[in-house]
Amino acid sequence: MTAALRFDPIRLPEKCEQLRKEVRAFLAEEIAAGTFDPHKPNREDTDVPEFSRKVGAKGWLGMTWPKKYGGQERSFLERYVVTEEMRVANAPTRRFFVADRQSGPVLIKYAPEHIKMDILPRICRGEICFAIGMSEPNSGSDLFAAKTRATKTDGGYLINGTKIWTSSAHIADYMIAIFRTSPPTKENRRHGLTQFLVKMKQPGIQVNPIGQITGQYEFNEVVFTDFFVPDDHVLGEVDGAWKQATSELAYERSGPERFLETYYVLTELVRAVGPNPDTRSAEGIGRLVAQLHTMRRMSVSVAGMLQAGKEPVVEASIVKDIGTVWEQQLPHRVRDLAAFVEETATNRETLERQLDFAIKTAPKLTIQGGTTEVLRGIIARGLGLR
Amino acid sequence: MAESDNIVVETAEKIFADLADPQTINNDKKGSWQAPLWQALSEAGLPLSWVPDDLGGSGASLADGFALLNAAGRFAVAVPLAETMLAGWLLAQARISSPEGEMTVLPASPRDRITRDADGALSGRARGVPFAKAATHFAVLAHGNDGISIALVDASKGRIESGLNVGYDHSDTVTLDKVQPVTIKPAPGGFDQTTLMLMGGVARSLQIAGALESMLDISVRYSNERVAFEKKISKFQAVQHNLARLAGESAAALAAATSAADAIANAKGFDDEVYLEAASAKIRCAEAAEKGGAIAHQVHGAIGFTIEHILHRYSLRALAWRDDFGSESHWAVELGKLVANRGADELWPLVASR
Description:
Chain B: This is Acyl-CoA dehydrogenase. Chain B: It holds the Pfam family Acyl-CoA_dh_1. The structure holds two protein chains of two kinds. By secondary structure, chain A is α+β, with helices and mostly antiparallel strands. Helices cover about 45% and strands about 15% of the residues of chain A. In chain A, the strands form two sheets. In chain A, strands 1-4-5-8 form a four-stranded mixed beta sheet. Chain A starts with 13 loop residues before the first helix and ends with a helix. In chain B, about 55% of the residues are buried. The longest helix of chain B has about 35 residues. Chain B is of the alpha+beta class. Chain B is built from eleven helices and ten strands. Chains A and B meet through helix 3, helix 7, helix 8, helix 9 and helix 11 of A and helix 6, helix 7, helix 8, helix 10 and helix 11 of B.
């Protein structure tokens, strides 16, 4: 057989259901208190520091991390439940999401102890925000092409160059970035990249916002000019970041956030068609729900693999490929199905507002976190074709 | 290939490998492979996996039986194994013993009805009944004035109009005209035609997922052999991306089908959550059969379109299995109605129920 692509039917344990109730109750309170509106995915400010601190106080950040760093030593499946409930409720998670999902685990693996003790508890309290510096102008998905240099100097490195498409850099306290410390070798194109912890909001870093077609500001260009990073901020092996970066990706690619970004339009469609849909609407909704359910079962299965200490790179790539193509098509499909919904239906207005935003969001979904083309290359490699 | 860590699947895979080699079957136009295969399966007790010992079966768990169906799908075997298993399972619901030999279930479509008279005689028409022509007995679900019954019927009592499905397997129309069953008993409380259709749909989903696994396997192998434009076609990025999509469809089908099987094997009854699992599996597997089958044929080029090549054994059966026990369109409408009826705010809790 070519590849053992198994997605075992992992079930969430009972304690996850208890946790889910707690998260739902918390989110309902926050909605009632006006912290955010779940029906407005396009709200102007998705960075809500006080919400972030409340989530931290609940113990829902760094959930799987060691207690000595402020974590809870809970399972990936429990974290999974918190993530999906936040996503489905359209909660303002921007400030903490990247740190919780990716940056914290990288620090736990590669940072010196004193840095872990300093930074990780602050992530867990929801106090700080992280950005990821990977793409550069003209590199994008081709990480090998990264040129921003880290030049060795006394006690550290001097950084010169530009990162781009960096989400949240304008509010981030730290960035975990990949810089070039050596040229690639002929034998190994992956050689020469090193991962660094960068403290933002300092001289030598300039953050320039880039507008998006949704009307939001999320992206930035980040320009480094003789910016100093001390030696103890090197994460892992000098010149060996490639492998580190790719093992991160299973976390980034298989989570519920990879098929739920436009989910809200489906809920609103169900509301708009009402309890007795015509055949066409019913069939459309049924198919979308079956597809959603299937992806979620695959995604939970990958969370179970991560919990078991595996590195399901191919499986995670499959979930992201199918998931992001689905969430990209979803607003268009909902638009089709909504075409004959009665104009007088009470939620038509909300649905239309949501569709407007979701349709503008859709193009990015198959680009962020690894393009569809790159993912299919990884899957093809897993099948033994490359 | 999925590792077979249970004895039922191991036994079946050995029999399939010995007696159901796809290339041998494909070359044998007379079907002389069928009798030895059925005999070996029967001797191993596999067709009556889901029938308890005291009712004449081998009493395997639901989970083992589902795994067996998935293995059968990987070999795309064209004998009434799934049908006899389902029939035995249906009869066992009413504590009716299973006879030996091939069986199938009536009805096989959610829209057909068999009715029971006051005197117990059965009447009605069932279309698209798989392997009715090969069956010696039917397991029948019938509606009467006082509820639902399950009956064992001698197949020779029914009128059978032969038909073939897209995969060239028998898919027949069976008419019962005041037929007295061998045995008839009331169905247990809560058991209805929808239960039977969901169970049949999950059986078909596991077979489709198995067929897709094999289609992926043989397509990858072929792409590594076939040379075009002076390169193996597996080295073309467009082909790689197509095969990556086929892997995705195969994985989605397997995930949906095994999740539904697991849900049924561990559930107390067919509640909304199990309904979501079973209906979703049939919908998603049928979609995967369409998309995945198209890619497998594309990779194979003209050779895969020939009757000599084994690809059609998998692709056409997977497409045909979409129609049994409710098509994906049927289940999509029903699932959509269920979701709409529960209301918008209950959709996510349903999806996230386990």
